[in-house]
Protein: Endoflagellar protein
Organism: Defluviitalea raffinosedens
Amino acid sequence: MIKVTRLNDTQIVINAELIEFVEETPDTVITMTTGRKIVVKETIDEIIGTVIQYKRKIYSRIDHLAE
């Protein structure tokens, strides 16, 4: 799960695993695999960075369990 900010400054948490694609039109629009679209303040690069951090946390926990 990652936290993003809608244009009205409310924060929501979305499932990073369900992101299909992200585009800037000029607002950043996240399209989920469900077809739902979410307009957010974060840039594409910020979203990519947040997803990478999320994945690192998840996979590092899996690595520790495997030891």
User: Anything to note?
Assistant: The radius of gyration is 13 Å. The longest strand covers residues 19-24.
